[in-house]
Model the fold of this input.
Amino acid sequence: MRHALLAPEHAVWLEAEGDRLLEFGRAALHPAGGFDWLDGAGEPRTEKPVELWISCRMTHVYSLAHLLGRPYAGAHADHGVAALSGCFHDDEHGGWFAGVGADGPTSTAKTAYEHAFVLIAAASATAAGRPGARRLLDEALEVLLGRFWDDEHGMLVEQWNRDFTVLDGYRGVNASMHGVEALLSAADVLADPSLRARAQRIVTRVVHGLAVDHDWRIPEHLDETWTPVLDYNVHEPAHPFRPYGATVGHWLEWARLTLHLRAALGADAPGWMLDDAQALFAAAVGQGWAVDGHDGFIYTVDWHGAPVVRERMHWVAAEATATAAALYAATGAATYADWYETFWGHVDEHFIDRDRGSWRHELSPTNGPSELVWKGKPDIYHAFQATLIPRLPLAPTLATALRDGWSF
Done:
């Protein structure tokens, strides 16, 4: 059987879908700097502050687009780099503000999640050769490692106050997950294997530790001793960043990142990496896919694997396609190519919005419109990466692979 994953016409389709997403995202440029949150029709939600995480993701995406040869993308990436060097930057205490409005910062807390994305954006922009990006990359790396890296535990702490004198007691696994993504990208762009070693420490603790210890249901929330807090946000289960329970889509994302790291390590990769990535994928499919009678991944489960929030998130579907492609690349097993086709079929039928652009960010348990967790279409990061990952090797990471001329 010939799988879509291997078909040249599928690669052409992925490229066209990526271009469609890029066109949608162009409306997000904010005149004062950064990228706006877009609504369902692609119009900027100007009543909201400009978010650092969105601006970083879009800077990263348009840096990749520049490397793909899209003529407008360099200017979009430069717009993002300028905002990260300007309106988002805390010139007094260092680091970056999580959001800015007409009157300045809307929050003064310094958070690892957003700072990881600053590093991702800076690394991709550096690979793309954008002005000021290398200076931004050096500073982003200095702040992430100097302020957020916990060397004793091999993880990223979550949140400081503005001047980095008071550390919040919450520890979040999500920030460390994107820290792995950021460190792998920076390691490739800078040719610095020490950053890959830090990423390996995080992956070992989370995937080969927390995930194994909890039957692959990764605890998302921990206290200052790095002990899981399993009832965190039990009364706010649909929180967009800190939901109660285990987040199925993150099992897929951790599996994929583990495979990227494994490929980068080559012969030095420990044997458990492939086994654990496969186990995380199997758990996500077994506990998350179509468990309530309708296709799609539910958002969260409790600690027995029962559904909690059953809405379907676009980013989970995007990660499912990318992880299935990564597992196929790592193993050659046809079952992953089969799942890849199944997931893209679901995306094509339910998430891709051909009338208003981009992907619907959230669907109901019956795959109808929903905005329980997310309103509008904030960014194109997950969806765009889903169009690239199947066409590129597992290592190096996306920006370096494109810079060095890799293709499917």
Summary: The longest strand covers residues 99-101.
